[in-house]
Design brief:
Layout: E1 3-9, E2 20-24, E3 30-32, E4 49-57, E5 62-69, H1 77-83, E6 88-94, E7 104-107, E8 117-124, E9 129-138, E10 141-149, E11 159-162, E12 168-176, E13 179-186, E14 191-197, E15 205-207, H2 210-214, E16 219-227, E17 230-236, E18 244-249, E19 258-259, E20 273-280, H3 282-292, E21 303-311, E22 314-321, E23 331-337, E24 344-351, E25 362-372, E26 375-383, E27 389-396, E28 404-405, H4 413-418, E29 423-425, E30 430-434, E31 437-442, E32 444-445, E33 449-452, E34 466-467, E35 474-483, E36 486-493, E37 502-508, E38 516-522, E39 534-540, E40 547-554, E41 570-577
Antiparallel strand pairs: 1-2, 1-20, 2-3, 4-5, 5-6, 6-7, 8-9, 9-10, 10-11, 12-13, 13-14, 14-15, 16-17, 17-18, 18-19, 21-22, 22-23, 23-24, 25-26, 26-27, 27-28, 29-32, 30-31, 31-33, 33-34, 35-36, 36-37, 37-38, 39-40, 40-41
GO biological process, one term: carbohydrate metabolic process
Pathway: Glycan metabolism; L-arabinan degradation
Organism: Jeotgalibaca ciconiae
């Protein structure tokens, strides 16, 4: 049994006329992705879409998603939509179902039409082109029209594809054993008719189906094969606002459908409106879950500034203890997991209120850790008795401690003055190791800096401090990793108490910069109440080109925390990181 991706819209409410994703393992029970929010948003034409349809381009290994350029929610009504509507189709394309092109409008060269509705497409093997078909109203009547395309950029000359005594819309087609089956909404009583032909654009003959003839108040038919000799025909019960129902057959040629009992299927929380169902592979299904069904936060409770690492077979997160006014935590804990989920808290590893750290009195912030020669070096922030922040280091033979701290801090605010750095505080260390050499990046204020550590990892080499140039809108928490011959820099911007806290991205050919700023890679997602996303670490799997970003966001539900206090009530999340064809980081999907 295969897996399925259902693309659809959800109605005329706010944001309802956009593209939503749902997936299924059996073709009967669907789960909404992206927490039930839209995945794709149209910014072209009417800035809304209906009737999305997804087709696989086997030859070029890509997907096209096409949709009606229409937003009834604007309030112009159905008369305008039918007589003065858009004459374009909205098109997205993707290589992997995750990262999509910007939407584009593809004009339909049918000048006398009042609209272009519910476009779908099917590959014509003989012509090596796609037949795109849709409904248009001309001279007061809806008919189905079609045109060929190779690339969903330009359409050929349209031709009439289907006309009946009354209006027809919403056609869908499936081929089986050389026979093409076409299902269409006949507006006479809003029912679905079935036809068949021996060629895609040949003469279709009406096929009588008692079950289809008995249904009314339905539209948006979609047909897909669930497994060998079993097909599902789904229809949108729009007249009663009940969403989709499933009809089943084991032989398309027999036209013998049965209506599946409602308790035997579930289309998920969102009410599904006209869309398309695409069979997908197990790998594609898992990838969709990885990006659009993330299970965040990954730590129970309030934790911030996470450093995500792997030692041996285990994953660890070293965070700041949060949920304390004024970021006044004094102790650090560690979390451990055999995978990138289900972390369990191990123990407190460093406590600034004890004799463990002689120089510090509190404000335990933003740790990071590195391994060298079998020892673990834990770098952390703390305040001295004079209220100034410093970066200290503690050492252990084990990732979970016990850790022994140096008597004095490693980096102090005096270094800021001595090196004339554009910094406000000596905080936010991150470690970078390359070819046996070790570096610490740090800083808060107008820019970050880097310093090389000595072999002992608890002291630094004099004269190696260098301030970075090019960290646009820098506030704090600069990180770096190397991939594809480039150094990839990320840093946090704005204030951690702001919902606009975010992560910027840039590249350099040198570890020491200057950095070429490119764009933000992690920002808030207000619609889903994901705010204040920042202060992160980027982790690479040991033997894979697979990366993840650990970061914090405002604690959720947001209403649990008063305004003005969300910035020190934060939770830790993990999301996958990807790169485009040029080797640059993609914007993180959260």
């Amino acid at each position: 049994m295969g897996k399925f991706l259902f693309v659809h819209f959800t109605g005329e409410h706010e944001n309802g006329e956009q593209v939503y994703f749902s997936v299924s393992e059996d073709g009967c029970n669907f789960n909404d992705l992206n927490e039930g929010f839209s995945v794709l948003t149209s910014t072209v034409g009417n800035e809304g879409v209906r009737d999305p349809f997804l087709i696989r381009d086997e030859k070029n290994e890509k997907f096209y998603l096409i949709a009606t350029d229409l937003r009834i929610g604007k309030g112009e009504g159905w008369k305008v939509a039918q007589e003065k509507g858009s004459l374009s189709i909205v098109v997205w394309e993707s290589k992997d179902l995750i990262y999509w092109s910007e939407p584009r409008l593809v004009p339909v060269p049918l000048s006398k039409a009042g609209n272009v509705w519910a476009p779908e497409a099917v590959y014509d093997q003989e012509k090596d082109e796609y037949l795109v078909f849709w409904a248009s109203k001309i001279n007061g009547k809806h008919k189905m029209y079609a045109a060929y395309t190779k690339d969903f950029i330009n359409l050929g000359e349209p031709f009439e594809f289907l006309e009946k005594e009354n209006d027809v819309i919403d056609s869908t087609i499936i081929e089986r054993d050389g026979v093409y089956y076409r299902f269409t909404k006949d507006e006479t009583i809003s029912r679905i008719i079935m036809e068949k032909a021996n060629s895609l654009t040949g003469d279709y003959e009406l096929v009588h189906s008692p079950i289809l003839a008995s249904l009314s108040g339905v539209e948006g038919p979609e047909i897909y094969e669930v497994n060998e000799n079993r097909w599902h025909l789904i229809v949108d019960r729009f007249a009663e606002d009940l969403g989709y129902a499933i009809l089943v057959t084991d032989d398309l040629g027999k036209t013998d459908f049965t209506i599946m009992a409602e308790e035997d299927y579930d289309f998920g929380k969102n009410l599904k409106r006209h869309g398309g169902v695409l069979p997908i592979t197990d790998e594609e299904y898992q990838r969709l879950l990885k990006y659009y069904h993330q299970k965040n936060p990954v730590l129970e409770g309030l934790w911030a500034d996470p450093d995500l690492v792997r030692f041996g077979e285990d994953y660890y997160i070293y965070p700041t203890t949060d949920g304390i006014k004024g970021w006044g935590g004094s102790a650090f804990s560690v979390f451990k997991s055999k995978k990138l989920r289900d972390f369990t808290r191990q123990n407190v590893i460093v406590d600034l209120t004890t004799e463990q750290v002689p120089w510090a009195v509190g404000n335990a912030w933003a740790p990071c850790i590195a391994e060298k020669n079998g020892k673990y070096y834990y770098y952390f922030c703390g305040k001295r008795s004079d209220g100034q922040s410093c970066i200290g280091v503690a050492v252990s033979d084990n990732p979970t401690g016990p850790f022994k701290s140096s008597e004095e801090p490693l980096l102090t605010p005096e270094l800021i003055k001595a090196e004339n750095l554009r910094m406000d505080q000596m905080i936010d260390p991150s470690i970078y190791q390359e070819e046996g050499r070790d570096y610490l990046l740090f800083g808060n204020g107008d820019s970050g800096a880097i310093v090389e550590l000595n072999e002992d990892m608890i002291s630094y080499k004099e004269g190696t401090v260098k301030e970075y140039q090019g960290l646009v809108d820098f506030r704090e928490a600069v990180e770096v990793f190397k991939r594809g011959g480039l150094y990839h820099f990320t840093w946090s911007c704005d204030d951690t108490g702001s919902e606009n806290y975010h992560i910027n991205y840039g590249i350099s050919k040198s570890l020491f910069g200057p950095v070429e700023y490119l764009y933000p890679v992690l920002e808030k997602y207000s619609e889903r109440n994901i705010l204040g996303t920042g202060h992160h670490s980027i982790f690479k799997e040991t033997e894979e080109d697979s990366y993840y970003i650990a970061y914090h966001r405002f604690g959720t539900p947001l209403e649990n925390y008063p305004e003005g206090e969300k910035g020190y009530n934060r939770e830790t999340c993990i999301s996958p990181v990807d790169f485009d064809e040029e080797g640059l980081m993609r914007r993180v999907i959260v």
